[in-house]
Design brief:
The chain has 244 residues and is mainly α. The chain has nine helices and three strands. Strand 1 and strand 2 form a beta hairpin.
Length: 244
Amino acid sequence: MVILPVVVGTWWYRSVRYSGDQILIHTTQLYMHFLNRTPNMNMKRLIMVLTAAFEFDPRSNKEAVMRPMDNVEIPLLIRELGNVNEKKKELPFCLPYSVKSRVLLLAHLSRLEICQNLEEDYWFVIRKCPTLLQEMINVGCQLTMMANTRGGIHAPRLESIENCMKLSQMLVQSLWESKSALLQLPLFEEDNLKYCLSKKVIQCGGPNIYIKSAPISDHPVHQRYPIHEGQIKMELPVTTCVNV
């Protein structure tokens, strides 16, 4: 007699807090507020809004954790990243959970090394972001339909929705949009790219990209990522020359 009301109460409490896609209702309302307030949202603002989700707030989600070592490790990452607007006074972007999740996402896009103390939180943020981005796109579509039927609502610009899609791609590739597409190749990093550019060994033709290697046995990168002398043919699904 006691168990049934408890089960029903737990189900009702969860159904009130979460949407159909298991996103916190407060997060959906947050996205709706800022998309309505800033219809033309650039990438920097988009990342701030995305990582302000209540999924990353320990007060709203038990999976999110704020650790004592965050006061040491997060400032170190901020120093490497540069300006991440950590001193912004606007709520909720100035809250510790929002700053932490934003820094971890930016570190992911910049391919920075994450210390062991932050690794669990890092993967938690990265796994949550694709679902949250999809929710943001859904909210944008809802606002567009609402703006067409009644006044007082600002539909997000196409650029804002496009930035959501771009960020989804950047998240999967762990790469900023401005970076060379060659950095998506396994074991191909900045040092390899700089060497190829300096020797002008990148050629494009038809559907394939050719990297013709010069003698590189004396190059320091060769010890970590050995490239055989001769011609290396990499089959890539491209039809035009990749801009490096």
